[in-house]
């Protein structure tokens, strides 16, 4: 059928009208704040059922005479030099007589018992099983304090006023009528949760970890916070500093605006401002001076001038090396940096006297260690929800065993309304996805939970099954959604109700998938929207449908761009200078705003874009569906599948959101072209 070209004037008029609405009243620095709105910790879905070498650990048990052993791990377990029947559901057990058994595993031990004389090595080092678990935590008070503690491995305490809700968690009360009383706790691995907040009489609490006193209010109990110091090299300068997460001001100044994602907005003077934070330095922006951005994923640092003159940047790293960079406003200047940054000095050239700012960084742990600790902390917080208990119980009764090792968990934090100038208008969500081990067959199963921290309400509780044949050919997707209202107060009665949604594939048209293939689909590309239907328009679409697709495609793209996402339009009605016009920065010169667009275009703040869909309601048309998928893929399908639905909050056509993302993940592996995968997925949603 001959395709009819829609009238260009209609499209251009719609775009111009929307841009006109964007030009006034834009919140300050929308794209900068949106960069901090979505954080994902880990990527468990890249290796759902095999041991990842980056987290692989070893265990060797060598017996002298007759020995009986039994141990349990929180993650995956495989027998390297031991009979396969020695392992079952994460537990290894056998009787040895002058023999050696070797295993590979992930995570920590929640039990380790040996009867007899044996030599045990973990990760090549001697392991004292008689004193397991090896770490100590003492909680002392002169009054009364309630505590709640968990770790990556086994936790033990001997007290009549304590309980163990699980192998990795203890709760209790320390009480003293006169003098000091304490509870001594032992644990394996690292602490994931430490709460001593319930001090009924306002008494002092002292916490000692492995002989060293620690702050009982520290958000990440296993990670000592890093520090950053900022000062001006000349006149006062406003700046925006993104430092990972959990940022707090320690001295020398006041944070004007701060989000839970580590974004600080303040003014640099000759007086030093000191921050504590977790994670890694992300970027610093000084209006009308420049930007320095850290890119740890590709081991580079980039800078760009935000003014007419060139920007001079000096970078010092933890190994003592120094890099001198110079940048204009026309393009990013990148340089390789594969170690932690400890000092950043930004100076505009051609100035009379010193000018610019200096940032000194004191990282106490690697970025990887801080990210792992944050992921485990978020997961531990969510494990305490009764909805998680219901989801985990259901998943393990039908599919396998929940993994609590770091490699099996992906956690996230996202914020709706993060472009608002008023922090009170932002809503923070946290969530975690736990892979399952010991699943029958080739199915890939995970359990997911998400919570609105503003209200304390659990908004998602799901069991996600990506079904596979015995030859690892995709069969479909099944999602069970917890009806949280069915829980009531009976969280252990098994009365929780689940609603199911599923899609089945035509397996004759699909081929086997592999973990390697799936890992390669994590990042597809930046957001580029073709308004001519967003993909090549199929011949079978009639002209009216084509016109509707183009109308809808432009409108959706405009709405997304209004929210701060960098969108490149092509096709009917596109504007050459769209990237700048749609992302104007209040308070910046035009040259500075355009430079910022160049610098911050790569990481699409896709949660902001999905919020636009959420405000519009359901995704109900073909082009809207494909735009929705494209936005998600700009961040990576793994990220989208993990947290996209928390941002959207509604269905995609005939599919629930979670089903849609997992179908899309399958289709991306099956088809070489992203456009084909998107169209196939939206066809499953009955929209294309």
Protein model, in words:
InterPro entries: TAT_signal (IPR006311). The chain has five domains: 8-27 and 518-684, no CATH class; 44-48 and 369-515, no CATH class; 53-131, Immunoglobulin-like (Sandwich), CATH 2.60.40; 135-214; 226-364, no CATH class. The protein is globular, with a radius of gyration of 27 Å. The strands form seven sheets. Strands 1, 32, 33, 34, 35, 36, 37 and 38 form an eight-stranded antiparallel beta sheet that branches. It is built from 13 helices and 40 strands. With 688 residues, it is an alpha+beta fold. The longest helix has 20 residues, at 543-562. Helix 9 packs antiparallel against helix 10 and helix 12 packs antiparallel against helix 13. Residues 1-36, 515-547 and 563-584 have low confidence and may be disordered.
Fold topology:
Elements: H1 8-22, H2 30-35, E1 38-41, E2 57-73, E3 77-81, E4 87-88, E5 91-97, E6 100-105, E7 109-122, E8 125-126, E9 135-141, E10 144-151, E11 155-157, E12 162-166, E13 169-175, E14 181-187, E15 191-198, E16 205-209, E17 212-214, E18 226-232, E19 237-242, E20 245-251, E21 257-258, E22 263-268, E23 273-278, E24 283-286, E25 290-295, E26 300-305, E27 311-317, E28 322-327, E29 333-336, E30 341-348, E31 357-362, H3 367-383, H4 386-398, E32 401-402, E33 409-416, E34 427-437, E35 444-452, E36 457-468, E37 474-483, E38 497-504, H5 515-519, E39 528-530, H6 543-562, E40 568-570, H7 578-581, H8 590-600, H9 606-616, H10 622-635, H11 637-648, H12 657-670, H13 674-684
Parallel strand pairs: 39-40
Antiparallel strand pairs: 1-33, 2-5, 2-6, 2-7, 3-6, 4-5, 7-8, 9-14, 9-16, 10-13, 10-15, 11-14, 12-13, 16-17, 18-23, 18-31, 19-22, 19-24, 20-23, 21-22, 24-25, 25-26, 26-29, 27-28, 27-30, 30-31, 32-34, 33-34, 34-35, 35-36, 36-37, 37-38
Helix pairs in contact: 1-6, 6-9, 6-10, 9-10, 10-11, 10-13, 11-12, 12-13
């Amino acid at each position: 059928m001959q395709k009819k070209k829609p009238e260009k004037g209609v499209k251009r008029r719609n775009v111009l009208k929307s841009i006109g609405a964007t030009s006034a009243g834009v919140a300050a620095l929308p794209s900068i704040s949106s960069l901090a709105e979505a954080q994902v910790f880990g990527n468990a879905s890249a290796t759902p059922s095999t041991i990842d070498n980056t987290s692989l650990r070893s265990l060797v048990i060598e017996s002298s005479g007759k020995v009986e052993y039994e141990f349990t791990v929180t993650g995956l377990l495989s027998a390297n030099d031991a009979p396969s029947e020695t392992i079952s559901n994460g537990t290894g057990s056998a009787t040895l007589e002058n023999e050696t058994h070797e295993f590979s595993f992930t995570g920590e031990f929640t039990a380790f018992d040996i009867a007899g004389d044996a030599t045990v090595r973990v990760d090549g080092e001697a392991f004292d099983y008689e004193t397991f678990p090896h770490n100590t935590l003492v909680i002392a008070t002169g009054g009364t304090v309630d505590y709640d503690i968990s770790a990556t491995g086994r936790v033990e305490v001997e007290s009549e006023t304590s309980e163990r809700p699980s192998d990795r968690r203890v709760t209790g009360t320390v009480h003293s009528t006169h003098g000091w009383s304490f509870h001594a706790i032992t644990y394996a691995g690292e602490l994931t949760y430490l709460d001593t907040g319930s001090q009924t009489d306002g008494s002092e609490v002292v916490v000692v970890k492995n002989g060293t006193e620690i702050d009982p209010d520290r958000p990440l109990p296993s990670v000592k916070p890093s520090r950053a110091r900022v000062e001006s090299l000349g006149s006062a300068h406003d700046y925006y500093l993104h430092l990972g997460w959990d940022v707090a001001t320690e001295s020398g100044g006041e944070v004007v605006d701060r989000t839970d994602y580590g974004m600080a907005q303040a003014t640099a003077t000759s007086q030093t401002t000191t921050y504590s934070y977790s994670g890694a330095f992300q970027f610093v922006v000084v209006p009308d001076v420049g930007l320095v951005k850290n890119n740890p994923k590709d081991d580079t640092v980039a800078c760009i001038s935000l003014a007419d003159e060139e920007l001079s940047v000096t970078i010092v790293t933890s190994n003592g090396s120094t890099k001198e960079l110079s940048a204009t406003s026309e393009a990013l200047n990148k340089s390789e940096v594969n170690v932690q940054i400890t000092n950043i000095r930004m100076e505009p050239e051609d100035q009379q006297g010193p000018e610019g700012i200096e940032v000194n960084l004191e990282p106490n742990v690697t970025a990887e260690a801080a990210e792992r600790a944050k992921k485990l902390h978020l997961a531990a917080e969510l494990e305490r929800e009764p909805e998680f208990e219901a989801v985990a119980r259901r998943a393990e009764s039908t599919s396998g065993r929940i993994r609590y090792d770091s490699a099996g968990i992906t956690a996230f934090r996202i914020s709706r309304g993060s472009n608002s100038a008023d922090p009170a208008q932002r809503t923070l969500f946290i969530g975690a996805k736990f892979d399952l081990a010991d699943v029958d067959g080739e199915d890939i199963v995970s359990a997911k939970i998400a919570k609105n921290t503003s209200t304390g309400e659990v908004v998602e509780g799901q069991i996600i099954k990506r079904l596979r044949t015995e030859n690892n050919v995709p069969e479909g997707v099944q999602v069970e959604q917890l009806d949280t209202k069915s829980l009531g107060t009976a969280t252990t009665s098994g009365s929780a109700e689940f609603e199911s949604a599923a899609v089945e594939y035509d397996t004759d048209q699909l081929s086997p998938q592999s973990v390697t293939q799936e890992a390669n689909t994590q990042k597809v590309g930046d957001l580029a929207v073709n308004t001519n239907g967003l993909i090549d328009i199929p011949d079978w679409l009639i002209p009216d449908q084509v016109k509707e697709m183009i109308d809808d495609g432009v409108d959706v793209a405009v709405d997304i761009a209004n929210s701060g996402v960098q969108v490149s339009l092509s096709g009917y009605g596109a504007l050459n200078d769209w990237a700048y016009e749609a992302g104007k920065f209040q308070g910046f010169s035009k040259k500075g705003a355009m430079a910022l667009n160049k610098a911050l275009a790569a990481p699409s703040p896709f949660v902001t874009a999905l919020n636009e869909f959420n405000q519009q309601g359901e995704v109900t048309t073909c082009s809207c569906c494909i735009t929705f998928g494209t936005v998600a893929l700009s961040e990576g399908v793994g990220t989208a599948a993990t947290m996209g639905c928390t941002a959207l909050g509604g269905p995609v056509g005939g599919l629930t959101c979670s089903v849609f993302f997992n179908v899309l993940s399958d289709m991306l592996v099956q088809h070489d072209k992203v456009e084909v995968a998107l169209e196939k997925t939206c066809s499953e949603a009955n929209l294309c």
